[in-house]
Specification:
Keywords: Membrane, Signal, Transmembrane, Transmembrane helix, Transport. By secondary structure, the chain is of the alpha/beta class. It has 35 helices and 13 strands. It has 3 domains: about 1-430, Sodium:dicarboxylate symporter (Proton glutamate symport protein, Orthogonal Bundle), CATH 1.10.3860.10; about 435-555 and about 660-700, D-Maltodextrin-Binding Protein, domain 2; about 560-660, 3-Layer(aba) Sandwich (D-Maltodextrin-Binding Protein, domain 2), CATH 3.40.190.10. The protein starts with a helix and ends with a helix.
Length: about 725
Amino acid sequence: MRSRIFNLSSSQWILIGLVTGLIVGLFFGEKVGWMNVIGEAVIMLMQMTIIPYILVSLIGGFGSLTKEHAKLLANKAGIVLLLLWAMALLTIFAMSMAFPAIAKASFFSTSVITSSPPPDLLNIYIPANPFKSLADGSIPAVVVFAIALGVAFIRTEDKADVLNLFKVTGKGLNIVTSYALKTMPVGIFAITASAAGTMTVTELNNLQVFLLSFIAVGLLLAYIILPALIACLTPFTWREVEQVSRDALVTAFVTANVLIVLPVIEQGCKELYKKHQLENQQTDQMVDVLIPIAFSFPNAGKLMVILFVVFSGWFVGSPINALDMPQLGVTGLLSLFGAVNVAVPFLLDLMLLPADMYQLFLVGTVVTSRMMSIVAVMHLVAFVLLSLCLIQRQWKPLGGGALRFAIIAVIGAGVFILSMRGVSTWLLNVDQVTNPLIEMKRVGRVPEQVYADLPKSYEGGQYSLTNVEQIKRRGVLRIGYLPGKVPFSYFNRSGELVGIDINIARQLAYDLGVEVEFIPYHGDRLKVPLAQGFFDIAVSGIEMDAETIEQMRFSPPILTLNLALVVKDHDRHAYDRLAKEARVRQVTLAVAQHKRLVRRLRDEFPHVNFVEIEHERDFFTGKSEADGLVISAEEGYAWTLFFPSYNVVVSKTDPRQYPVGFAVARQNEDLHQYLTSWVQIQKVNGYFDQEYRFWILGEGAEPDTPRWSIWRDVLHWDDDPAAIQKQD
């Protein structure tokens, strides 16, 4: 029995580590999150031979080629690469039909107002300093340098000794890799345990449609389309292709790393050729060259991130048109010569999709990176086998094989797409989707009173002159608020007054050592109620401009907001469309708070009719007819959580910002000085940043509960002795 255990294959040990890690992660939850360090250490150990291996194998492989073989390699391999790209893109775009119909919205993200720089292809691909490229781990640049030197060796005489050195070095690196591979089951166990223990169910629910579709595309490409293409066009069977790539697929899946399995892929392809007795003296050299070349180009696994861009269009209610998909495919292919984390924001911006969708993409990387890795492995296997068969003229004749492949691909893709659409529709229950903004709350640290109307006792104006000493003597700080001003001051589902300005006002009262009262005001009519002392301080995202600072005193800016436009039906082209329409017809834009700003905008845009409305809700409920609503992006995203059929657009070419702050009456100089100093102190200690992340970026909507685990939630073996005793 013991001998059987130790005779298990590497893929079996890897699977054991995967399953065991999953069980441990689910059992202990967040307690095993630290194991990710072990997994990272194993991956770094595996990576130490990769760049040297690419360097020596490319130089030695190209240097050993004849001129005729080099020409064949350039022509034939290029055809195969284009074929694989086309198959991947067709599969990805076909999967868009699996998305059911739904409208959703999200919190504001700072990425909305920032543009991602395009990929720097020069630095990625041109090794101006090869040693720097080696040190930085710039794989494409290393490949370009190695190919250039290897091609030079084709025409060089007396190269045998140098090429033999590269060959021997490559064998040594493979031996080191084989030793490092023995630690892989341990690393896989640690990575899986950490991921299973820390990834929350909520995160998975937010991504379930995308993840299911992404997994479906990965399985289609890795186990149906690409293997079927190989089996139909080469002498190798589907089963043989699966067998030689099995270890590499499993390892790439659990580590989310393709680099470490390059030697495994190389060995598998060589063994498959030897098994069929198709190898010749150039076969091994070709394999050594083809794998590094293929790795330096975008593979089918990388192209899968384009599916996220298609998903984002569906998610925000603005699906990508079929006519736009070729542009997305070509641009995505070029952008993916760089890093995925650069390409995704770039493609979102290209298709005029909310940049904050990138945050959603990052949440799912635990799954997506692994699916991309297994597709990348099968892409490399397909590229090597197809290219080598084409170069050596070992392809099956087109006809029945191509027809079988087309039938298998169409049927397999159709079944997967229909299945995913049915599963997604069943899992995605729109009626259960709640607005996270209305559930948010913060418990105040001081007693408070919230009024729905102005108290009669304050109408006499006896508090028109207010200072800090009087506020402390009466024991109450009176705050004027604007009802329904999300996310600054609004009522949550429990009927509690909440919002970023409300929370900051509570903290101010706490620091003063007094209770707090919230008194409503209406619209932007603040000069009179402040001057007559209806309340001490006015809040609710009050815009600061040249006119208002003459009427009242302001604190230093609490926030800097970004002017935006809210439009119906997720009109992603709103700015361009409205600008064009304004030349031929009257365009109507609604505005609530920013009436003073509109006075300046009227001069810049004479063909735009600005309609003043009492409240932003009038636009969303249809009470006021307009083509769009002028509002801050921060407020606009909050409103779309209530009305997800609307979309927020921000101008990237003409961004506009404005400050908001707290206001006091002009005569209350003592209170103004205190408020000014207090705001400056809170900015320095990071309090406003904390509140900004909570209310504006939506961190307050995330449940602050421990990750579910068998240890805590089933067996109740937590660290609280009182809880254990209670359970007993």
